[in-house]
Amino acid sequence: MSTRRFLFVLGSSRPEGNTEQLARAAAEQLPGDVAQEWISLAEHPLPDFEDLRHDSDHVRPTEGSVARLLDATLAATDIVIASPLYWYTLSGQAKRYLDYWSGWLRTPGVDLKATLAGRTLWGVTALAEERQAVADPLVGALRNSAAYMGMRFGGVLLGNGSKPGDVLDDTQALALAKTFFAQPAPLARYTFETD
């Protein structure tokens, strides 16, 4: 796959919230020939995930939100999970999207792990807290997911904001957004291997 294709998975229940605004600020810096697809999980909700990995034949979904997200995931060279920090980790919507990866791993004809190997996972989050270390569980969840899939990990762009629009006052986050997707994305290693 020669041309980069970014999939932005928006995991907020609030449209155009701080996390999305920060993700869009970073995406503005991507070259014009980089394809972008934005999918809001609030607008395209996934049903509750049922773990049928070991007791059911899997069929590739052909319609609805699950099919759209699967197709977009398989087509992406870069997956950006843009989730606000909720209780120190990913939003429920963003976590559900990752839960679906478990089912897609065993869906015939998908070969998710081999397809995503070598591609890049990124994160963007806004938090209502000055201490960025409180986002470590979210960062760890994304890094470990990337490591399991054999993906590269570009890190997580962190911004501060509670009320809609607050993140636009975070000059440090906006400065980092200008070069975020240009930074190196090494092959992911589990958090316990990097500490």
Automatic annotation (TrEMBL):
Cited PANTHER family: NAD(P)H-DEPENDENT FMN-CONTAINING OXIDOREDUCTASE YWQN-RELATED (PTHR43278:SF4)
Gene source species: Streptomyces phaeoluteigriseus
Domain NADPH-dependent FMN reductase-like: 6-127
Keyword vocabulary terms for this entry: Flavoprotein, FMN
Name of the protein described by the UniProt record: NAD(P)H-dependent oxidoreductase
